[in-house]
Amino acid sequence: MLETASARGGRALAIQTLDAGIVVDNPEAHRFTAQVAWQRIDALVAAQDTVDDSYLQEFAQTGKPVVMMYREPRGIACPSIVPDNHGGMHAAIEHLIGHGHTSIAFVGRDPANADDGIRYRAYREAMLHGGLEPHQPWTVTWQQDEVYQSAIAMRQFLDHTPPPTAAVACTDLTAMSLITALTEAGVTVPDDMAVIGFDDITDAATFQPPLSTVAQSFTLTGAMACGMAFDALEGHPADPGYHCAPVTLVTRESCGCHGPDARGNACAQFAHAMAEAAYGGSNPTPAQWRQLLAMGERLAVLLTQAAHTPGHDAAIARITEAAADQLAPIVAGARNPMRIVGAVRRFARALAARLDPDDVAIAARLERIAFDLSLRLLGDQRLDPHDHPIVHKNVGIHRRYYMISSNLVRHRAQGPHSLAWLEATEFRAGCFALWEGGRGDRDHTDALRVVDTYDRTGNHPVSAERCAVQAFPPASFLDLIDDQQGDLVYGYLLPVRFDGSDWGFLALTGPLDAYDETAFERYNHWAVLLSVALDHEHAMRSERALLEEIRLSEERYALAAEAANDGLWDWNLTSGEVYYSSRWKSLLGHADDEIAATADEWLDRVHPEDRSAVQRTLAEHAADQSPSRTSSALELEYRLRTANGMYRWMLTRGRSMRDETGRVTRLIGSMTDIADRKYLEDRLRHDAHYDGLTGLPNRVLFLERLNRAIARSGQQPGYAFAVAFLDLNGFKIINDSLGHEAGDRVLVQVAARLADQMDAHDTVARFGGDEFVLLLEDIRDMASLPALVGRIVSALSQPLLLGKRRVSIGASAGIAASPTGRRTAEEFLRDADTAMYRAKMSGNGSPAMFDESMRAGAMTRLQLESDLHQAIIDHQFELHYQPILRLHGRNVIGLEALIRWRHPERGLVLPNAFLPVAEKTDLIQTIGRWVIRTVCRQIRHWLDADLEPHNMTVSINLSNRQFWDPELRSWTHQAVTDFDIPKSMLVFEVTEGVVMHNQEEASALMRQLRDDTVQLHIDDFGTGHSSLAALHAFPIDALKIDRSFVARMRIDPRSRELVRIMIGMGLSLGMDVVAEGVETEEEAAALADLDCPSVQGYLFSPPIPADSVPGLLPPTGRSSDAAV
C-alpha cells in the first residue's frame, strides 16, 4: 500500500484501531469509534476487523471513497479486496481428488469471519463439481491471540464413520491445530489423512509435516486496495463488491505429495519469499521469476553439497561464499534484507525436512551452514553511514530501545506529555494529543489538545493547539510527513489507550520500516508504557490533591469547631472525672467555676422526662453495650436546666474510646444548643396542620380528624357526625374591588366568628380561598342539622368592619352526614361540596342536605366545566346583538352584545346556563376578553361594509372579575387599536353590585374608562343598593332599568311608581334611561307615559346574529339622534 500511494503521488496515514498492545481479550468492549483524521484523509482503506460496519457507513456518508480488505461490505456500496477464495479452494479440492480422495472434510473456525464462510461455500461447490458429497464443517475454536483448540473437530472426526481421508482448512493455523490433534490421537498425516491449509503463513513450510496450502499475497492485496482508492479519487471508482487477488496452490507433504518435486516446491516457496522481500507489493516479471527459481535451485544444490561434505571446512567455506555471492545482489537492493536472511534459513529447514529420517547429521549440518550463510550475509551488509555491520547495529538498537522504554516509565522532569524520548528512535517527527476531557471512554466527536510535538530538525515550534478529533493530526504535522526523505512517505496514528485508560493519540512519521514485523510490536509497547506513565502521573496528581484536601479538611474542621463554639466534654470512666469546657458551662448560663468535674453536675440537670433515656444511653456506651455494636457513636437530644431554672433543648454527640485491650475507658463529645431548631420544628409541625392566615386547622389536620371520625363511626354504634362545606357569597367582589389585603381581613373575621360558634369537640377548617369546612361530631338528631348549620352561618350575616367601611357577606352551606355508604374523607367532602353548590344555586340562603339526586347535578356541572374549556379551544362561542331603540320614533340607537354557546350536542346554549360556572372556574376572564375583541372586529367589519353605525354604540356586559381586572384598559385599548375603531362606539355595562362595595376605587376606574371615551351604563338598575349620591358620584352615561320592574308595572302600582322614580332620577342627573325586557305594546305605552327615552326587548327584536344587524341600521346618509 505504501509503495502504491507513493507511486501515485499520495500520502498514507496508517491508523491503528486496537488498543495499545498486541492482544485484546474482548474487542467489542474496545470498539474503535473515534473519527480521527477524517478531515485529513481523502479515502479510507479498512482491513478486516479494524472497525465495525457503522463506522464505515458513517465515513461513507462524507462522500469520500471506502475500500475494504478481507471483509464483507455490509450496508455500504464499496469494493472489497479478498483473496481468490473460490479459486484457491477449488484448486485444493481438485488436488486432493487427484490423490484419490473422495471423502474430504472442511475444517472451519469458531468464531468464523467472512473469508471462512466464502471458503466453505467454495468447498461445497468444488465437492459437488467433483461429484462428491460435501460435509458439514468441523469446528476449531480460536481466540484473538491465535490460540486454537481442536477438541470439537476431533470429536467430529471420531464420530464420523468411516472418517474422511482428507481435509481442507479455512486457514493454515486451523490446519496446524488439526494436524497436532490428529497426531496426538494416533492419526498420521498424510498417510491416514491428507490436509491442506489456506494463507501460506511463514511457519507453513517448516511445520511437520510441511503444510500444503493456498498461498495469497498480502502485499498484492494492499497494493490493489490502495490503487482502487486512488482510482476512485481520480473519478474511476471500482465496482462495489468483491475483487479477488490471485492465489497459488503450494504443495508440500501434508497433502501426500512426495518425491522428486519436493525440492522444487521448496524452491518455489523460496522464490515467493524472495519476491516479497525484494519487490514488495510489485509482482516480479516472468524473467525475474525465472531468475528467482533458478537461484533457489542453485542455492539448494550448494547447500545440499555442503551438507554432504563433512569435515572439509575449507570446502564448506568456499561453498558458503559462493552461495553468499549468489544472494548478495538481491540482498543489496532489498527493502528488507532481514526477510531474505529469514527466507534462506527456512529454505534450508525445508530441504532438511525432505531428507531421509536417518540423515540426522546431514540435516543438522544443513541448518548450521544456513546459519553461517546468514551471518555472512548480515556481516557483508552495510546499513548505516558509519559502516557498522548490521549485527553490531542491532545490538545498539536493542540497547537504545531499552533506554527508550526506561525513559517512558521513569519519572522525568518533562513529564509523560513530552516527546523528547523520540530523539532516541528512528522517527523523524511526532505529535501527541490528549482528550480535552481527560482519560476514559471518549465520544468519537470529542476534541483533542496537542500537548507536544517533536521535530528532529528542530524547525517546528511546539504549539498547544486545540483541534477536533477529525482534524488530527494537525496540518503542520502533515507537512512534516511530506518533508521526509525516502520512497515510503506515511504517518502512523497510534491510540494511547490501554487497560481502560483512553488518553488520546500519538502520531509518528518516518523513516518507518513497514516490512519489519517487530516494529509495530515495539511501537505498541511504547504506547502501552506511555499510557501507564500517564496513568501514573494522574494517580500522583490525584494523590497530591487528596493529601491537600485532607490538609484543608483538617484545617476547616479546626476552624469550624472554633466557629461553632460548641461545648466539649470528656468523661474519664476510670477516674470518674468529667471535663467540661468553658463553652459547655456558658451554654447553661454558668461561670467557669460554678460547675464541678463530676457526672452528677450534668445528669442532675437533665429534665426528669428525659433523664432515664440519657442515663441508659450513656451507660450502654460506657459498658460497650450500645444497640449499634458496629458504631461507637452516640447522639442524644434532651432538655437541660439552665442557670435561670428554665430548660433548653441540647444535642449531645459523643464517641467511646478504647484502650489496647478493647475496653471502653473514655466517652468524649460535644454539646450544642438546639433550642432554636426545636422551636422551628414545632413551628413547622404547627404550620403543616394549621392555616397561616386564620389560625384554623388546614386541610391536612381536618382530614386526619375526619378519618378518625369515620373510623369511630364504624366501631362505635350510635356515633354520628356531619361535614358542612361553606363557600362565602360576595367574597370575590370584595377581594377584587378592595384588594387582597381587605379580603384577608374578611377571612380572618369570618374564621373568628365561625370558631366562636363551634363546640369544643367540633372542628372548623379553612381549605383555601373562601372555603371553610365544618366537622360536627356526636350528632344526636340528624333532623336538626340544617338548623344547626344555619345558626352557625347566620353569625356571618352581621356586617364586617374594614377600617371605616362596613361590608356584608354571606355563605352557602352544604351538608353530608353519616351514616351513609361513604367510605373515605374525600367522598364526604365531595358530597358536602355538591350540596353547597345546590344551596348557592337556590339563592334562599338555607343550607342544603346532600341527597343522591344531587350527584347527577354535580356530574352535570363537572361536564359543563369540561365542555367550557373545550368550547374556548374550539371557538364554539358566538355573539348575538339586541337593538336598543328610542321609544319615540323607534329608531335603533345601539346594540347590546349577548354571548351564545353553539354546543356541538346541545345546540345554542343561553348565557344563564353557563356563565355562573364560568365565573366560578375563572374562565370568565378568557371569555370576556374574547367578547371585547369579537365586538371590535365586528364593528370594523360593519365600517368596512360602508354601513354608517358611527353614531351607534355596542354594549358589552362586564362581570365583576372583568371590571376589576387591572388589564381591562390595556386589553380594550389593544383591541380598539388592532381593529382601528372609535372607542366612543363601545359601552361597558356593569351591575350595581360590582361597584357599590368599593365606590371610591370603582369611581376612579370608571373615570379612567370615560377618559378613554368608553361609555358606562349601570345594568339591572334597581336590584342593588345604590343611592342617589352614589349615582351622582359615578361617571355614568345611562341607567338600565331591570326587566322585573317593567314586567310588574301593569299589575303592581308600586312597581310603576318605582319605574317613574328611576326614570326621573336618571334624567335629572343627565343620564339616558333604558327600560329592559319590553315585551308588549302595553308596557311600551306605559313607559312612554312615564317619558322613558329608550327601550330594549323582544317586542322590538330578539338578539340576532351579526349578519342580520345591517338590516336594522339606518340607511346611508340618514341623520339620527341616536346618541346614547
Summarize the structure.
The chain is an alpha/beta fold.
Number of strands: 39
Shape field: elongated
**Whole-number total of structural domains:** 6
Given this structure, which CATH class of the largest domain is correct?
Alpha Beta
Give the termini distance in whole angstroms. 98 Å
The largest sheet is: 8 strands, mixed, barrel
Oligomerization:
single chain
The radius of gyration computed from the alpha-carbon positions, rounded to a whole number of angstroms, is 52 Å
User: CATH topology of the largest domain, which one?
Assistant: TIM Barrel
- The residue fraction in helices comes out at 40-55%
Strand content: 15-25%
CATH fourth-tier homologous superfamily of the largest domain: EAL domain
Which CATH architecture of the largest domain is right? Alpha-Beta Barrel
Q: What would the average pLDDT be, to the nearest integer?
A: 82
Unreliable runs, pLDDT <50, ≥5 residues?
259-263, 382-393, 626-631, 1117-1124
Structural class: alpha/beta
| Spatial ordering of strands, largest sheet | 30-31-33-34-35-36-37-38
Number of helices, where a helix is a run of at least 4 consecutive DSSP H or I residues = 35
Q: SSE layout and pairings?
A:
Elements: H1 2-7, E1 12-15, E2 44-46, H2 53-60, E3 66-69, E4 79-83, H3 85-98, E5 104-110, H4 114-129, E6 138-142, E7 148-149, H5 151-159, E8 166-169, H6 172-184, E9 194-199, E10 212-216, H7 218-233, E11 241-245, E12 247-250, H8 262-279, H9 286-307, H10 313-333, H11 337-353, H12 360-380, H13 390-409, E13 429-435, E14 447-455, E15 466-468, H14 475-483, E16 490-498, E17 501-509, H15 517-564, E18 567-572, E19 578-580, H16 582-587, H17 600-603, H18 608-622, E20 633-641, E21 647-658, E22 664-673, H19 675-689, H20 699-715, E23 721-729, H21 731-738, H22 740-757, E24 763-768, E25 771-777, H23 785-794, E26 800-802, E27 805-807, E28 810-817, H24 825-842, E29 848-849, H25 853-874, E30 877-886, E31 892-903, E32 907-909, H26 915-920, H27 924-944, E33 953-957, H28 960-963, H29 968-979, E34 986-991, H30 992-996, H31 999-1011, E35 1015-1021, H32 1028-1033, E36 1038-1041, H33 1043-1047, H34 1053-1068, E37 1072-1075, H35 1081-1089, E38 1094-1095, E39 1104-1105
Parallel strand pairs: 1-16, 2-3, 3-4, 4-11, 5-6, 5-8, 8-9, 9-10, 28-29, 31-33, 33-34, 34-35, 35-36, 36-37, 37-38
Antiparallel strand pairs: 6-7, 10-12, 13-14, 13-17, 14-15, 16-17, 18-19, 18-22, 20-21, 21-22, 23-25, 23-28, 24-25, 26-27, 30-31, 30-38, 30-39, 31-32
Helix pairs in contact: 3-4, 8-9, 8-11, 9-10, 9-12, 10-12, 11-12, 13-15, 21-22, 24-25, 27-29
